[in-house]
Design brief:
This protein is about 60% helix and about 0% strand. The protein starts with a helix and ends with a helix. Helix 8 packs parallel to helix 13. The model has no long low-confidence stretch (mean pLDDT about 95). It has a single domain, classed as ADP-ribosylglycohydrolase fold (Orthogonal Bundle). By secondary structure, it is mostly helical. The radius of gyration is 16 Å and the shape is globular. It contains 15 helices and no strands. The structure holds magnesium ion (MG). Magnesium ion binds next to helix 2 and helix 13. The site of magnesium ion has 6 residues, from helix 2 and helix 13.
Length: about 260
């Protein structure tokens, strides 16, 4: 969960100013948490307050938590349709296939004890807003990758799993020049997975993710979620990220990581 937030924070300054290079200062002074971190915290908070054998209860709690966090942290780069959903206090899904479902999903992989449970929770967490099949697929692919990494599986196993959802038949070097801003799951989740697969460590995964451009905070968030489960997060990066995470997000992060 912290890995996702660090990716979001590091990538936050590059979402609208793409930086197609791996060399940059990891924590730019203007870095901040964005919607990715805030909604990840909402998922974690809903998991903490739900009976996980009751997916309908989890979904109800998640809707309430997303609204609560959205109010506490307004204007942090929410997608226009999600912003409208928040402002209107909607409790209904709107068929989104954007990467919001995948950027917020990583906590489910930490609470799940089996892959089956992980995929069911990922689907439930997506479909309260992103009930398009592509929105659900993005959440499941990302959560399953985090789950396998957490279980100590090898990268080949993680790659094979994600290939049930997406073709990973490309390299970052091969797409970097042409890759453009794409907030769909199908246009950003596989890129985030490859950023992790090509990486030599946690920090390298984040740098890989930023280096292709596009929706940088979210791609780095997703790559960071998998990389943290696979490699762990170096202490110095953990410490440097600390001051960027505040308020209720900090509170939930601390409670969640104490348990999982
Ligand atoms: Mg964002």
């Amino acid at each position: 969960m912290l890995g996702a937030m660090i990716g979001d924070i590091v990538g936050s300054v590059y979402e609208w100013n793409n930086w197609k290079d791996k060399r940059f200062k990891l924590f730019h002074p203007q870095c901040r948490m964005t919607d990715d971190s805030v909604m990840t915290a909402a998922v974690a908070s809903a998991l903490l307050s739900s009976d996980l054998t009751d997916l309908e209860m989890f979904k109800e709690n998640l809707v309430a938590e997303m609204h609560r966090f959205g109010k506490a942290y307004p204007g942090l780069g929410y997608g226009p349709r999600f912003e409208k959903w928040l402002v209107q206090g909607s409790t209904k899904p709107y068929g989104s296939l954007a990467n919001g479902s995948a950027m917020r999903v990583s906590p489910v992989a930490w609470v799940a004890e089996t892959m089956e449970e992980c995929l069911a929770l990922a689907k439930a967490s997506a479909e309260v807003t992103h009930d398009h099949p592509d929105g659900i697929a993005g959440a499941q692919a990302l959560a399953g990758a985090v789950f396998l990494a957490k279980m100590g599986e090898r990268k080949e196993v993680i790659r094979d799993f994600v290939e049930n959802y997406y073709s990973l038949d490309f390299t970052l070097d091969g797409i970097r020049e042409e890759y453009q801003f794409d907030v769909s799951c199908a246009g950003s989740v596989p890129q985030a997975i490859v950023a992790f697969l090509e990486a030599t460590g946690f920090e390298d995964a984040i740098r890989n993710a930023v280096s292709i451009g596009g929706d940088s905070d979210t791609i780095a968030c997703m790559a960071g979620a998998v990389a943290a489960a696979f490699y762990g997060i170096p202490k110095d990066i953990r410490e440097e990220a600390g001051p960027f995470i505040d308020g209720e997000v900090r509170n939930v992060l601390d409670r969640f990581t104490r348990l999982y």
